[in-house]
Known about the structure:
Blueprint: H1 3-6, H2 11-17, E1 34-35, H3 39-50, E2 56-62, E3 64-65, E4 77-78, H4 82-102, E5 108-116, H5 124-137, E6 139-150, H6 157-165, E7 170-176, H7 180-185, H8 192-205, E8 209-216, H9 223-236, E9 240-245, H10 254-259, H11 268-284, E10 288-290, E11 294-296, H12 301-307, E12 312-314, E13 317-319, E14 325-329, E15 334-336, E16 340-343, H13 348-356, E17 364-367, H14 370-385, E18 387-389, H15 390-397, H16 401-404, H17 409-417, E19 421-424, E20 427-430, H18 432-436, H19 438-442
Bound molecules: S-adenosylmethionine and iron/sulfur cluster.
Amino acid sequence: MPHSEINDVTPEMIQRYNRPGPRYTSYPTVPVWEKGQFHEDYVQCLQKESLKERPISLYVHLPFCRQLCTFCGCNKFITGNRKITEDYLSALDKEIDGVARILHSRKKLAQIHLGGGTPTYLNPKQLERFINKITSRFDVQENSELAFEADPRVTTIDHLETLYGLGFRRVSFGVQDLNRDVQKAINRNQTAKQSWDTINNSRSIGYTSINLDLVYGLPLQTHQSFCKTLDEVGKMRPDRLAVYSFAYLPGMFKTHKRAIKDKDLPVPEEKIQIYLEAIRFFTEIGYVMIGMDHYALPEDELALALKNRTLHRNFMGYTTLHNMAQIGIGVSAISDFGDSYWQNNKDLYQYMNEASDKILNPRRGIKLDKEDQLRREVIETLMCHGEILISDFETRYEINFSKHFNNAWPELEKFAREGLVKLDSNKIDLTPVGTLFTRNIAMPFDRYLTESSSMNFSKTV
Ligand SMILES: C[S@@+](CC[C@H](N)C(=O)[O-])C[C@H]1O[C@@H](n2cnc3c(N)ncnc32)[C@H](O)[C@@H]1O
Ligand code: SF4
């Protein structure tokens, strides 16, 4: 974003738009999904999937971590008890058997993503056994994307070599912030050396894509301190970066409420300065900004997908993969069949009990009608490309765009008057300043969002 544009962000704007709102990794958002027991619906979706040719993307949730980072908003389970990891892996094995049985034929896998928690909390032997279980039930395609999330503090060379040997080429490491005071405030001591060593080891083993996660808006973080983190991380030269806005949810996470003092958080103006600094820094050293919060080297597939308009967004963030069923395995994992979403039990013990009894029983779900699918695509397009080509939607969905979204239109006109979007007869185009408020600009297209329901989400700045 050009520097002149940065000055266009006024404190009033920040105040007006800094309100709770979804990050839209799904639409409809999870709180809208029905709660219940969805065994039959889920089995039906898998059966329908078995008749399709398209490959599958498998997401596996591995929730265990050694130590609690107090800022964390993931579904994680802190434990020193190794026995529970064995019980959990047995439950995963049963779930994989169950899914594969319903899918009938040996389905092709185009992606495996191990997310967490911390997948490398499991030892290399456990990971190897588990991946072999997957490959005994599915055919991993030759060019498939195998990726895992890892915490540099617990990831050994043995982990990296084992997963590389199993075909993994992408790895995503949590760094968050390198400043000691910030680390203390989030209970995560991780020296720069630990991050450097893990990155260097991954490179020499042969990993071709290294992603680092940073978080802005953490307690005690300042614009100045974050600049030092950026300098060091820039030298690490990862292929991709995610720079997440700290989702502070004291109403949802007891640890946020107990361990993070409101007064330690950067005020919204400081937080947005930190965010802008990240944009300035990474674009100046040659990264391409992807959507709201990701960066990639120009030759990286994400940057190329942005250029070719083939970029997509799902639970795992921005992706180049599309048109495949996403099947989630493990506690709280989400499945996305395109016209329905399902989420597994979020309680670890309940999940393990049912999976061990071979019961596939998502506890939340939603079937998307045509209107949901249209709105999902509009929101995803805004999040990925920052622009909507109106005629494209009018042709494919047989609608008159401005009439169809007549409730959203006055809001969009307001954004246009503020300089956040440019509107013309065929285009809704986010301006560089508008990019900072992408979540706000997507919200008028959400037909379920009410003032009170939006309170469940983190603030947009
Ligand atoms: C599953 S964790 C990453 C792997 C590993 N557990 C680690 O911490 O290194 C995924 C990422 O989510 C991000 N994250 C977690 N809690 C967050 C929150 N409350 N707000 C914003 N980002 C968050 C962090 O950047 C974290 O690295
Ligand atoms: S940030 Fe990573 S290591 Fe820390 S608690 Fe969350 S999932 Fe675990």
